Amino acid sequence: MKTLTQPALLKDKCYINGEWHSAASGKTEDIMNPATGEVITAVPFMDDTEALKAIEHAAAAQIGWRSELAKTRSAILRRWFELVMANQDDLALILSSEQGKPFGEAKGEIAYAASFIEWFGEEGKRIYGDIIPENIPGTRMTVRKEPIGVTVAITPWNFPAAMITRKAGPALAAGCTMIIKPAPQTPLTAFALVALAEEAGVPAGVLQVITGDSIAIGEVFCESKTVRKLSFTGSTGVGKILMRQSADNIKKLSLELGGNAPFIVFDDANVNAAVAGAVVAKFRNNGQTCVCPNRFYVQSGIHDEFVEKLAAEVDKLKIGNGMEEGVDLGPLIDEKAHESVLKLILDAKEKGAVQATKRDLVTNKRAPFISPVVLTNADDSMQLCSKEIFGPVAPVYKFETIDEAIAVSNDTDAGLAAYLYTQSINTYTKVSEGLEYGIVAVNTGAFSTEVAPFGGVKESGLGREGSMYGIEDYLEIKYVCLGGLS
């Protein structure tokens, strides 16, 4: 890895109760650079015992943190935001090295991550209650919003910075403590962010990070009655497991799960704009996002033009190590991901899909690089129609009518994000209202921002993150009825 301006940000220990710890067992696991296969460092492999200790420290710290003035918590979060932005290049270097995305894209993620700290630092000062007009003589009725208590965040490898701050920002702003369990592939970004939170003045026990046995630690978090809220971003399958494990103590959950996003292009759309939006939406982070378009539905009148132009743009994308100049797409996260994406492509081709892009599929067999692909003649017999691809593959399906586009788009258990391109206000209205998704992007391939709610419906999850709504999941509503007044 290249030299950091602040080498102390590259941590190799967990942060528990204000101190950096190795695993009690001495066990570690290697963190690899997916672009080179090189070991960056090794991190602690902790177990359920250490997770329980982190919960105890979080509960102890909760008492003082919830009692702090919202203004005080806001000032600390503001300082954390400033430190993240001051160390943006170093954080991006760590992120790119362990995750694989191009440095410029990693730098953008750091800024995006910082935006949640800034936003929720301000929102924490605006947690208002209510006065209810009394309907019983001699009473006064008020509503307070109070921090839910100890919280946990289990975060993914595809956005190892933003998925932490999108959870920790509202938790800390609301007066909650939080324990972070980052993905095993990308813990170094989490360590660096928490180191900066410590420097910003976040008290011991308020924000902790633990790595190790994901199954054992996850069970402890779910089964603990002390942990009152769990936020998870990841696969639908794991989300269901966490939900079942949390059921016995009625834990509050935020689940941001898998997607199967449609990208619908109507005959009246600006084709060039739709192609540009498709490249942004599909190939960001090498297609490894839950909101990447999984199915491209293009109306028959412009189908051929769209495919030709999209394939030409995709063939221009440069593949390589994310630290190299001009690279657009880094590697997939690991060999398992590479095998999964390749299997979906080969299945589609065996069932009649035609590759519109010109490059060979595999660009480097020594690391999980794969060429971005546009496939035509796709149909619902292919696995990639129903399974989340999580890679740089754009299957294109032809459709005829608006009603058909809505029906095929909704024919999935997922409901996170959807995209549509049209110049007709009538089409926009009918389709955006007819789509069963938590997010609908119209004539744009980029919609993520800290000020808007992010989340899905159906099996894509529960709750919303970001925006004024995001802090509500870290609060409980308390109704107080004062009687005996004359």
Secondary structure layout plus pairing:
Layout: E1 14-16, E2 19-21, E3 28-32, E4 39-44, H1 48-67, H2 70-86, H3 88-99, H4 103-123, E5 130-132, E6 140-147, E7 150-154, H5 162-174, E8 177-181, H6 187-200, E9 207-209, H7 214-223, E10 227-233, H8 236-246, E11 252-256, E12 261-265, H9 271-283, E13 293-299, H10 303-314, H11 335-350, E14 354-355, E15 373-376, H12 383-386, E16 393-399, H13 402-410, E17 417-421, H14 425-434, E18 439-442, E19 461-462, H15 467-470, E20 475-482
Parallel strand pairs: 7-8, 7-10, 8-9, 10-11, 12-13, 12-17, 13-16, 15-16, 17-18
Antiparallel strand pairs: 1-2, 3-4, 5-6, 6-20, 11-19, 14-15
Helix pairs in contact: 1-7, 2-4, 2-5, 2-6, 3-4, 3-6, 4-5, 7-8, 9-10
Describe the structure.
This protein is α/β, with parallel strands linked by helices and 486 residues long. It folds into 2 domains: 7-257 and 460-479, 3-Layer(aba) Sandwich (Aldehyde Dehydrogenase, Chain A, domain 1), CATH 3.40.605; 262-442, Aldehyde Dehydrogenase, Chain A, domain 2, CATH 3.40.309.10. The protein is 38% helix and 20% strand. It contains 15 helices and 20 strands. The strands form 5 sheets. Strands 14-15-16-13-12-17-18 form a 7-stranded mixed beta sheet, sandwiched between helices. Strand 15, helix 12 (383-386) and strand 16 (393-399) form a beta-alpha-beta unit. Helix 3 (88-99) crosses helix 4 and helix 7 (214-223) crosses helix 8. The model has no long low-confidence stretch (mean pLDDT 97). The active site is at residue 256. This is Succinate-semialdehyde dehydrogenase (NADP(+)). One of its GO terms (cellular component) is cytosol. Belongs to the aldehyde dehydrogenase family. Pfam families: Aldedh (PF00171).
